[in-house]
Amino acid sequence: MNPRSTQQQPCTLADPRLRSDFAPIHYPRLHGQDTPPVGATERNDRIQLEFLAVYYGLNCEHSRLLELRGRPAADQLPEEEKEILRAIERLLVVRDQLEDTYAPLGVLAEPIVNDGFTVTVRIGFANRDAAGRLRSEMFTLSTCVPVPLPGGLRFEDMPISLQGPGIYPK
Amino acid sequence: MLTAAVRDLHRCHPGQFLTDVRTDYPQLWENNPYLTPLDVDEPEVEVLECHYPLIDLANQRPVHFVHGFIEHLNQQLGLQIQPTRLAGDIHLSEEEKRRPSPVEEVTGTHVPYWLVVAGGKFDFTIKWWHFRRWQRVVDAFRDRVLFVQVGAASHYHPPLKNVLDLRGETSLRDLIRLVHHAEGVLCPVTMLMHLAAAVESRPGASAQRACVVVAGGREPATWEAYPGHQFLHTIGQLACCAGGGCWRSRSVPLEDGDEKDRPENVCVDTVNNLPRCMDLITPEKVMEAVGLHLGRGEAARRPRQQAAHWDASPFTRIRQHEEGRAGQARPVATAL
Fold it and tell me: Structural domain boundaries of chain A?
């Protein structure tokens, strides 16, 4: 990047899908897109995987918390609950660091939550639009609008001036 | 800014010209008294392409953006137009002035408010300040001022908390009406800054609307700042903007294939991907600037206790408005 930058790298967030205890039910979906493959290297893919990893972690901890709080009162261990809450706090800090690091790149990661679980993450990027096109790419939209002329009239004789491709063919 | 040039053309040369415009933003020209419908095919009509090449000298000459189109018109028409006001020229219809503000339409009551822009377009990301910094400023005035967040849905505008969120919900005319009724504006260098100067205040409000601009070192204050605005810049404080604005485009490359990603267009001095000039402008500095303005606004005249009581109803309605949007809560806030 720039030689004088003092950029901080985000925490390393390993892809949880590589773990032996991976629980697919807690891995969020990406809104409107396929999840990048394990080991993806393209920048946007990597950023998506990092956010998915942190929200996966939050879902797992939330699940643990629900399980703990669902036990009979005698089996609820305050220390265990504190440990889970601390883990959640750590993950929130990592999530905030990701948001901070990638904000200048125009990255917006919005979780869509159901019953406390992040089921989908909507991630927007500055370099691509919602359809995945590079914003700098030119694209055209065209349509054909037939306008019938009154009988006996020729287009060239109309008292109007229109400009554009396909109009006034010579 | 072309609205200012057309106004000053007529003020300096009354009765000599008829003018009309072809523009991507016709809403800015609604109710403009200086426009006459003209047919470009009529032989008496001369078409001028309007530009502001003066911007290339903004670091060298004591000129403002308002001079840009004026000087170009002077060169093309052989005139001596002078700026008559350091602001653009936006007009509201009587009906627009009579209508309640868009905020009042949401809250059901008159609420003094500031507008906040916490992002911008994707072309010049170097103008962005960090969203957590905007949030800190908003939070600092939470019990004194209602901030209304605006911004185009297709641009980068991270959602702020504790604001009335009108992102993506305003037409350009709505935005002009919002500015008309606003006590103040908080933004980077963006269109809203120009509107803050150009749009007349509602009756009873200060004629000079408060505006705090987080500008950094991209553009010289002489070119961008308006009278009465707090234009927070770093020109002269860093090597990269020691003698004027750097005029670069991006904080870091976006990898979108745009020429603005070229090294000569990218910031040379960043801190955590934020331009150092923007990093130097701390939330505390912005709070101080907002606080100075608040000393003369309607919100400042409200006793604090009264404000809490008085705010209850509008803020309830704002929450209802927010719940009607598609925004999502943070997951763990629920868990905790």
Answer: 16-124
